[in-house]
Specification:
Length: 395
């Protein structure tokens, strides 16, 4: 038999989905499992969004449509970005995709040649290095370390830029750390991008989920509109994970390439979901602010409770809905701790190394669950913490 393409040997999966699969196995065996591994809000789209979907179907909007997305949705995205991020983008610069992952994948496919170097945050979304390797590129991590408050270090990035560096990936607020990049950091990143003629992929899927201050996109900085591609979508900000709706905002010269890739892959996004997405963006019922307000309450309670667990240390994230917990003082590996929590306590979480080598001493918990569920999760963890309490006491 002929072998598979060589790219399949270098691409990787996602730790969250692996843990989820094992957690579902335990549930089928009758175990009670608290799912804190997946980044999925426990909310659902507003009634107005669901009604818009039904109305679109009733009106026969279930046909092939424009490759880049229906014009009304592209206009709505442009208006939304101006309202929420003060960005001035044209509808013609927006390409709708069936989810953020495919938007990210196709953007990288349009930009990366074999041998191109791609700078990306570590810890970060596992797809960044995986897709880069699959396309023949060279992933180059820059660390988000505690001593730097989990912010990118522009000095480190500067040292890692070579003549082969083509792309800088940023993710603010970030998965898994919840970091919101400071103005100083973003300004320096923008200066580096301009100086070295780098293209920037700004992953802004969590842009609406922040806990204080006003979100500023990297595209807002001088010299960035012509070199920045924004990846965003509806999963996190509008609780529409299963709808698979994302989009790319790209410089005009790159849009035709994204459309060509769309033609050769998904053809177009389901028409009726796009009309419902217009309603979501308008958010006349204030569903997104209410959801984020609830996340803010959960964040305060959950971080406080997690810090009661022997050997756990966690600071409140500035955005997204993840607790990034340092477990070094437990004396155990993150993988072993996650195994104990899942198998013995029925709490599913992700070892930090799933997000890169810099995450080896961390565990990621999602707090996109009810307050009662989060409290129960911590109580279960406390009950099994006897497995490592002795190690903590000896330190």
């Amino acid at each position: 038999m002929r072998p598979l393409a060589s790219r399949m040997a270098v691409m990787t999966g996602e730790g969250a989905l692996s843990v989820y699969a094992r957690a579902k196995e335990l549930e089928r065996e009758g175990r009670s499992i608290i799912h804190l591994e997946l980044g999925e809000p426990d909310f659902h789209p507003s009634t107005a969004v669901n009604d818009a979907l039904k109305r679109a179907l009733d009106e026969g909007k279930d046909r092939y449509c424009a490759v880049a997305g229906v014009p009304a949705l592209r206009e709505a995205v442009a208006t939304y970005l101006h309202r929420t991020r003060k960005l001035k983008v044209l509808a013609d610069n927006i390409v709708i995709a069936p989810g953020c992952k495919i938007a990210l994948f196709l953007a990288m496919m349009a930009l990366i040649d074999p041998g191109d170097e791609v700078l990306y945050p570590d810890p970060g979304f596992p797809g960044y290095p995986s897709i880069t390797l699959g396309l023949g590129g060279i992933p180059v991590p820059f660390e988000l370390s505690e001593h730097n408050h989990l912010q990118p270090d522009p000095d480190e990035i500067t040292v890692k830029i070579t003549p082969r560096t083509k792309i800088l990936i940023t993710n603010s607020p970030g998965n898994p750390t919840g970091t919101v990049y400071t103005d100083e950091v973003q300004r320096r990143l923008a200066e580096l991008a301009v100086k070295h003629d780098l293209l920037v992929l700004s992953d802004e899927i969590y842009a609406r989920v922040i806990y204080g201050g006003e979100y500023v996109s990297l595209m807002n900085y001088p010299g960035m509109p012509e070199r920045t591609l924004i990846i965003d979508g509806f999963s996190k900000s509008f609780a529409m994970t299963g709808w698979r709706l994302g989009y790319t905002v790209a410089p005009a010269r790159i849009v035709p390439a994204l459309q060509m890739l769309a033609v050769n892959s998904y053809t177009c996004v389901a028409e009726f979901t796009q009309y419902a997405a217009i309603e979501a963006l308008q958010d006349r019922e204030g569903a997104t602010p209410r959801m984020v307000g609830e996340f803010a309450k959960r964040r305060e309670q959950f971080i406080r409770d997690l810090n009661r667990v022997p050997g756990f240390r966690c600071s409140p994230p500035e955005g997204a809905f993840y607790a990034w917990v340092n477990i070094a003082e437990t004396g155990m590996s993150a993988e072993e701790l996650c195994r104990i929590m899942l198998e013995e306590a029925g709490v599913a979480a992700i070892p930090g190394a799933a997000f890169g080598a810099a995450g080896v001493d961390f565990i990621r918990f999602s707090f996109a669950s009810s307050t009662a569920t989060l409290q129960e999760a911590v109580e279960r963890i406390l009950r099994v913490s006897t497995s490592w309490q002795g190690t903590v006491a000896a330190r």
